[in-house]
């Protein structure tokens, strides 16, 4: 099963993705995690990406499309993937569709996590303190929310038009939201 986790930064995609991955027994792959690891390792990709990430901007598609191709071509992704943090642009969504089509698969579901803006900011500020993520600063958070609206929100209609969008109320406890995810997938 190929699932996309959609929603603004701080909406719980990572946390819920981990729970879901365990439950379904398919890997969750997060481009943000891969990029942060590459930046820590100081690879060419990491260095390129870091400049954008710290400013709250999207890493350009010219850089990301290769990474997505690698992820979806890996043996780990042979029977399914939970995609956390990608696709994030229409060009990326089209690339995902094309790559999955090559393996006779498609996006089976796109789960959209809906969380009020104030709650998103509160969560990210808290995470910045706890995990020291460099893009969880007030300035970068504001930028990331704007970028989400401009670049990623169009994916909501993209997946709705394909009949795979499932909207999930993302406020509430982790357990509560996990239960809603379970129901949305069963539906
Ligand atoms: P995340 O951990 O998903 O919040 O991603 C952190 C940052 O990594 C984003 O703000 C972007 O700078 C970059 N990033 C992660 N995934 C993508 C993607 N699919 N396309 C472009 N940039 C990305």
Summarize the topology.
Blueprint: E1 2-6, H1 13-24, E2 28-30, H2 31-41, H3 44-53, H4 61-73, E3 81-84, H5 90-102, E4 109-114, H6 117-131, H7 138-152, H8 154-161, E5 165-169, H9 174-186
Parallel strand pairs: 1-3, 1-4, 2-3, 4-5
The structure holds adenosine monophosphate.
Q: Please, what is the oligomeric state? A: single chain
**Biggest sheet: strands, sense, closure?**
5 strands, parallel
Low-confidence stretches: none
Number of strands: 5
Overall 3D shape: globular
| SSE arrangement, N to C | EHEHHHEHEHHHEH
Our Rg estimate from Cα atoms comes to: 16 Å
Mean pLDDT over all positions: 95
Distinct helical segment count: 9
What is the helix content?
55-70%
How are the strands ordered across the major sheet? 2-3-1-4-5
Q: Ligands in the structure?
A: adenosine monophosphate
In whole angstroms, the N-to-C terminal distance is: 14 Å
β-sheet strand percentage: 5-15%
Class of secondary structure makeup: alpha/beta
Keywords:
187 residues; alpha/beta; five-stranded parallel sheet; 5 strands; binds adenosine monophosphate
């Amino acid at each position: 099963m190929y699932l996309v986790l959609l929603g603004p930064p701080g909406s719980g995609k990572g946390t819920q993705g981990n729970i879901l991955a365990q439950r379904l027994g398919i890997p969750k792959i997060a481009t943000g995690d891969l990029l942060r690891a590459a930046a820590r390792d100081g690879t060419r990709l990491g260095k390129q990406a870091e400049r954008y990430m710290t400013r709250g901007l999207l890493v350009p598609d010219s850089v990301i499309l290769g990474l997505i191709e690698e992820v979806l071509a890996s043996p780990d992704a042979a029977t399914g993937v939970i995609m956390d943090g990608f696709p994030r642009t229409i060009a990326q969504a089209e690339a995902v569709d094309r790559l999955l089509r090559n393996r006779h698969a498609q996006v089976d579901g796109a789960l959209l996590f809906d969380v009020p803006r104030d709650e998103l900011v509160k969560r990210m500020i808290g995470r910045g303190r706890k995990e020291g993520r460099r893009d969880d600063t007030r300035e970068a958070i504001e930028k990331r929310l704007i970028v989400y609206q401009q670049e990623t929100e169009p994916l909501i209609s993209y997946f709705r038009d394909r009949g795979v969008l499932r909207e999930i109320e993302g406020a509430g406890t982790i357990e509560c939201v996990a239960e809603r995810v379970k129901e949305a997938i069963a539906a």
